[in-house]
Amino acid sequence: MNVTKESHMLCLFKNKKWIVVVSLLFSNLLFLNSSNAEVSVVVHPENSSTFDKSIIKKIFLGKSKSFNNGRVAILLSPAEGDPARQVFNKKVLKKSSNQVNAYWSKMIFTGKGVPPQEMASASDIISAIAANKDAISYIDSTAVTSAVKVVATF
Amino acid sequence: MKIVTITAAILLTALLSSTVVAEIKFSGYGSIVAGKTLGTVNDPLNPGQKRDEILTADFYDVGQYTNDITFNAESIFALQAVAGVGKGFKITAQLVAKGVDDFEPEFDWYYLTYQASDNLTLMAGRRNIPMYYFSEFSEVGYAYPWMRPPSNLYWWQVTQFNGIHAMYDFDWGDYSNTLSFFYGNEYSDDNVEMLYYDKLYGGNARTVNEFWTNITGMNWNISGDNFDVRFVYFQNDRDRETIQQDGSIDDYSPFSQTFIGLGGSVDFEPFTILFDLNFVDYDDARGTEFPTYLISVVYTQDDYQPYVSYSKADHKRTKGSSPTEDLEEHYIASFGLRYNFLPKASFKVQYDHFVDQGHEASGWAYHGDSDTITMGVDFIF
User: What angle do CA B312, B215, B74 make, to 5 degrees?
Assistant: First the structure.
């Protein structure tokens, strides 16, 4: 961070009104972004496990390691900054992207968990899932194809 | 320590070169933090003399703030390498460089992980002792809202050990559980914190070696939709060698200690409550006890997370004569703001009000009061 930005932020902290205004603006932007988007949780077509919001949340936080079918889940996620990721974090994990990253940093640096493998695009996710019976991920609903099975939408 | 570091370095180098095609993942974390105390205080150990207020932000390495702005008390950079080495085996090493050590890197973590089954993980090697709720990741600033877990609780002269862990995951209704059992030892030669105390009280020791052995205990972690709570119990043997300039070693009576605690976080959107209750008990001649607790509330509004926290430490002697209550006793009231300006970086500013309530006549009020401001950036990669 450069010095001008830091001192700029310090000014913000001194003036609480600005914090309120800036955060309100920001939350409105987020709200507009996320309200339109729908994400689909996708698995391999042969994965017959059952899913609900709570199961999906546990799987994507690494708290449940396996599907109902007994197989160990392989987690994939869209890249940081992908709007689908923000929507999923907010609607399913009920956390901001930073809170999710903070959670995983605790797991990674204590050796207690590995975050989902980041994929570059929705089409990469689809081909990875089509090729692996134990993979699970989520993508923007408009990107879904018949190569994967949708088990929930949010 | 040097030999261990070199061994680990050789091991890692061997790994890196022999498993060229094996998957090695690098990641890391760091904090760049500057701060200072705001005033002066009557020196509790030298009555009548004034000195800068001092806040010890890192007891283990004695990272302190005084009236002069410093980046060295808490700034840290860590690089982690994880190498898969075959069926279910992984090797993890963390190279950590701290401002208090002039950024000289050391392997603070290196351990082997074996995934014995879907639910059972075994680990062997050097890790942090899972004492307080935040102990294992106390240096990963990005992982928690504050500048640091409150240093008046995270004050121990030993934080790491060489040992084994067994972690078992299971579901209990809707709750995810992890039971961990651990055993290990730490022979902390040239202990920085204990030598600091020796000098603080007018000593001139060459070095102090601190031994925590037979560290044996368990963690039980339970998490649900909106909470994560951890119970901890362990015990260990304590011994110490204070070596004087002439090579003589001070008398010391070894004893055992038990550590018990309950800590965690509970979400009540948009608020998060973080807490830790702990009790340390020595079986020494004085019946020493350290009850401590932390309570903190964080408010999350998108990328802004203002917070308050209160941490209190007490020290009692339940047997023998002389002052038995309020020996080393202090609290820190803190407030601050975490601003997540990038997905993997946050800016923090924190104000700490430290009040020393210790017993001055017996020398236990050695911290002195302080008001401290710190600001910095925590990041992961």
Answer: 50
Render the burial of B235-257: b for 16+ CB within 10 Å, e for the rest. Answer: ebbbebbbbeeeeeeeeeeeeeb
- Inspect the interface and report whether the beta carbons of A80 and B144 lie closer than 8 Å: no
CA distance B1 to B106: 9
Residues A58, A73 contacting (CB under 8 angstroms): no
pLDDT recorded at residue B364: 84
Please state, rounded to an integer, the average pLDDT across all residues of chain A.
84
Any idea what DSSP says for residue A93?
I
Distance from CA of B246 to the nearest CA of A (A): 42
CA angle (B44 as vertex; B246, B75 as ends), nearest 5: 75
pLDDT in tens, A82-93: 999 999 999 999
DSSP string, B175-223: EEEEEEEEEEEEEETT-HHHHHHHHHTT---SEEEEEEEEEEEEEEEEE
Closest-CA distance, B241 to chain A, in angstroms, reads 31
Yes or no, beta carbons of B127 and A111 under 8 Å apart: yes
Closest listed residue to residue B329, CA positions, set B286, B361, B377, B365: B365
Quick one: pLDDT at residue B326? Answer: 74
- Compute the residue count for chain B: 381
pLDDT score for B263: 98
Cα–Cα distance, B193 to B290 (Å, whole number): 18
CA nearest to B347, candidates B374, B375, B372, B373: B375
pLDDT > 60? residue A47: yes
**In this complex, do A64 and B301 lie within 8 Å of one another by their Cβ atoms?**
no
Query: How many CA atoms are closer than 13 Å to the CA of B51, on its beta-carbon side?
Result: 16
| Nearest C-alpha neighbor of A44 from the set A141, A138, A150 | A150
Distance in angstroms (rounded) separating the CA atoms of residues B162 and A115: 26
Which residues sit opposite B288 in a β-bridge?
Answer: B317
**Among residues B345, B275, B349, B260, which one has the least CA distance to residue B309?**
B275
Q: Which residues from B are below 8 Å from A101, CB to CB?
A: 142, 343-344, 380
- Among A54, A96, A105, the residue with its CB nearest the CB of B300 is A96
Cα–Cα distance list, B106 to B73, B109, B192, B209 (Å)? 17, 9, 15, 19
Q: Is any Cβ of chain A less than 8 angstroms from the Cβ of B172?
A: no
Cα angle A101, A105, A110; round to 5: 160
The yes-or-no verdict on residue A80 having pLDDT over 50 is yes
Q: What angle do CA A139, A144, A150 make, to 5 degrees?
A: 80
Q: Do B380 and A101 touch (CB under 8 A)?
A: yes
* Closest C-alpha among A150, A140, A137, A3 to residue A73: A137
pTM listed for this prediction = 0.87
| Below-70 pLDDT ranges, chain B | 1-22, 323
**Smallest Cα distance from A146 to chain B, Å:** 31
The DSSP bridge partners found for residue A78 are A119
Residue among B29, B111, B304 minimizing CB distance to A111:
B111
Q: If we measure between CA atoms, which residue out of B68, B164, B158, B152 comes closest to residue B111? A: B164
